[in-house]
Specification:
717 residues, five-stranded mixed β-sheet, 6 helices, mainly beta, Immunoglobulin-like
Length: 717
């Protein structure tokens, strides 16, 4: 029998083994058949809670298991808790979790703190993962939150501070005062959360509700502390309305921007803008001093000044109310006004020609009542006052440079100069008479229409010149055609140039205009005055080839047809003449002299010298040229036909033939051969006939008749 101690030890071991087995079974994998999640409503109204339904599809056997449930919405963990589930084999099991009971791993209701149930206008994804004493399983779905939008949400002041109350006004979608709306301020710049200047669940926040007038009032210094400056997140929400979030700066320090323009001028308005230091938002009601001048900033943070004296001025921006008592100090430099400007209507007027002087200020605006002093070239002058249009009209009477000074109190003087001049009025007398080689007149007057004597009148790029007389007239010759420039010049006057066309018509002539090929024609070109001119010639032959020459030109024709001669001269109208060249008739005769063939070429019974002849003979082809008597010879080396053909473009082609014969015997050698052949043929035929005749006679003789000769031979052996 076991002792009591041993019994106790045995029971303890048995208990330990049992517990171990139970723990092993509990920690073993358990197949739930997967999960499927759903919501009691997948289309929610802003502010509604919902029930998350997790359905285990097919538990493998009856058991009680601990299930860890992880829920995330749009990637943010909202729930991580253990749940005990009693599974029945083969039966689906549904686990329901209300959104109001969501708790994360820190036991925080992130879903509620982040106001997720008020986030509208976007689809949300909810995902679930189960684990621990069951096989891991996941599922997800999407849902959407609908709601109205607030019509108006305003913050006063727009840049809140730590000491003044900040009022938030809210109106509903019909723009009526909305009471009972939750308004939550979160100080996102504090150091309690995980991130700086971004919302965190650990950030300090305060929630208030709007009154019957749709307003809430918050004092940041009281609620969050006297040093709680920085960024705040404002969340406005209520049941049925979508969440509205804004970020604002709460500051107690200021800064300024300006002046604008950066260097203001005397009498010119400039601005200083006061803003919050961090948010750069306008701050109103701040006193700004520039020297002894002071102003308060308006609703947009601007203070405006106009200073009437140049210099450096102290800038002091004083703090009031919730802002620091330390003023901002600086310096503003005000520059003197700019100088006056003088515009002259004509910088080179003629003597006696009025000019208009216009005085303007630095901004380009006309300057009335400005003093304008003019000094003439001889030192005399006067002072004038500009009109309301800022102008002065003045007529110079001297030749030279005038000096102008414009002045007005508060402005720097403006200066300018102009110089007078004399100009010509040039008239071309009778322009139609301007023909090359002609003499024409030019009239020169002053700006005041008075004749100008002793003015030089020249044609540019030529040596032609003349001088005007008492009447301002000059006679000049026209040496060239085309557009010429007539230059008029005289001391104290400005040069004048007038362009005038000088007419030129050419007439080309050809003498003679019709001739035989090889003859010559003289080409002459005349101008309007019927005088020869050295014109440029382009001679085009009948075959299209061209020759460039000058008139007078001797044209030697070498081809039949029409020659075109174009005559041209710079500035002149082109002229054209034609010359027609015709070929002459040609007669060729032949005779034999001293065993040579003599060929004579005549044209219209005249000797044709220098004619090229092509002679074809049994020995080949040869070319010869007729001499000054029109004759050419060729050796008669062989018997046969000789053909003579002209090969000269000046003449109409001609051809003749000549036959060289042999001696009489030689001439009839072929007849002798024919006769000899005939005699042989006759002899052969005669012999053949005789042989045939003999054979016929033998056949006709009787057999008993003996030939006498044979008989005699037989009788006398």
């Amino acid at each position: 029998m076991l002792s009591p101690n041993r019994r106790i030890i045995g029971l303890s071991l048995l208990t330990l083994i049992t517990i171990t087995l139970i723990a092993s079974l509990a920690s073993a994998a358990y197949d739930t058949g997967g999960i499927q999640i759903d919501l009691n409503d997948t289309r929610l109204t802003a502010g509604d809670d919902f029930t998350l339904q997790i359905e285990f599809q097919d538990p493998e056997y009856n058991d009680s298991r601990r299930v860890e449930v992880l829920v995330e919405i749009d990637g943010t963990q909202v729930h991580l808790q253990d749940h005990t589930v009693n599974f029945i084999e083969g039966q689906k099991y549904q686990l329901n979790i209300s959104s109001s009971s969501f708790r994360d791993e820190k036991d925080d209701n992130v879903f509620e703190s982040m106001l997720m149930k008020y986030e509208c206008d976007t689809s949300h994804t909810i995902s679930v993962e189960v684990d621990d004493q069951v096989d891991t399983a996941t599922d997800e779905l999407t849902y959407k939150v609908d709601g109205e939008d607030f019509k108006t949400i305003t913050i006063t002041p727009s840049v809140p501070n730590l000491k003044d109350n900040t009022v938030v006004y809210v109106s509903d979608y019909r723009d009526r005062d909305f009471s009972g709306v939750d308004v939550r301020w979160t100080w996102v710049s504090d150091t309690n959360g995980d991130t700086d200047n971004a919302w965190d669940i650990a950030d300090k926040y305060r929630t208030v509700r709007t009154s019957s007038g749709g307003e809430t009032s918050t004092n940041f210094g009281t609620r969050f502390g006297t040093d709680a400056r920085g960024k705040y997140q404002l969340d406005v929400y209520t049941a049925g309305y979508c969440l509205n979030t804004k970020t604002v700066d709460v500051d107690s320090e200021i800064a300024y921007v300006g002046p604008n323009p950066s260097v203001p001028k005397v009498g010119e308005q400039f601005t200083i803008r006061v803003t919050s230091k961090e948010g750069s938002s306008a701050v109103s009601g701040i006193q700004v001093k520039v020297g002894s001048n002071q102003a308060l900033t308006d609703a947009n943070g601007y203070a405006r000044f106009t200073i009437n004296s140049p210099g450096d001025y102290d800038l002091v921006i004083g703090a009031t109310g919730d802002y620091s008592n330390t003023p901002i100090l600086g310096t503003i430099t005000v520059a003197a006004k700019g100088g006056l400007a003088i515009a002259i209507s004509n910088n080179k007027p003629n003597i006696g020609e009025a000019v208009t002087l216009t005085v303007t200020g630095p901004d380009g605006a006309v300057m009335p009542s400005a003093a304008v002093a003019l000094a003439a070239p001889d030192g005399s002058g006067g002072t004038y006052t500009t009109t309301t249009a800022g102008t002065v009209s003045y007529t110079p009477t001297q030749s030279g440079t005038y000096r102008i000074t414009a002045s007005k109190s508060g402005y720097t003087n403006g200066t300018a100069t102009f110089s007078t001049q004399n100009t010509f009025k040039v008239t071309i007398d009778n322009p139609s008479a301007w023909i090359i080689g002609a003499q024409v007149s030019v009239t020169v007057l002053s700006y005041a229409n008075q004749p100008v004597q002793d003015a030089a009148v020249m044609i540019k790029d030529t040596t032609t010149s003349a001088t005007t007389d008492l009447n301002g007239r000059a006679i000049i010759s026209l040496p060239k055609a085309g557009d010429v420039q007539v230059l008029v010049r005289k001391a104290t006057y400005q040069d004048a140039t007038v362009t005038q066309r000088v007419q030129c018509n050419l007439q080309a002539t050809a003498t003679p205009s019709s001739l035989d090929v090889g003859d010559q024609s003289i080409i002459t070109v005349l101008n309007d005055a019927n005088k020869p001119v050295a014109a440029d010639l382009r001679v085009t032959s009948p075959d299209g080839s061209e020759v460039v020459a000058k008139s007078d030109y001797t044209l030697t024709t070498d081809k039949e047809g029409e020659y075109r001669i174009d005559a041209s001269l710079a500035g002149c109208q082109q002229s054209t003449v034609t010359v027609t060249a015709r070929r002459q008739p040609l007669t060729l005769t032949t005779e034999v002299q001293d065993d040579k063939l003599l060929v004579t070429a005549l044209s219209n019974t005249k000797v044709a010298a220098g004619v090229s002849l092509r002679i074809s003979s049994p020995a080949g082809t040869k070319t010869v040229i007729t001499n000054n008597r029109g004759e050419a010879t060729v050796d008669l080396a062989e018997n046969g036909n000789y053909t003579v053909t002209s090969a000269d473009s000046r003449y109409i082609p001609a051809t003749t033939t000549f036959e060289k014969e042999s001696s009489a015997l030689g001439r009839y050698w072929w007849i002798i051969i024919v006769l000899g052949v005939a005699i042989v043929i006759v002899a052969v035929v005669a012999l053949a006939v005789m042989q045939a005749y003999k054979k016929v006679n033998r056949r006709r003789r009787p057999p008993h008749v003996l030939d006498i000769k044979d008989e005699d031979t037989h009788l006398n052996p």
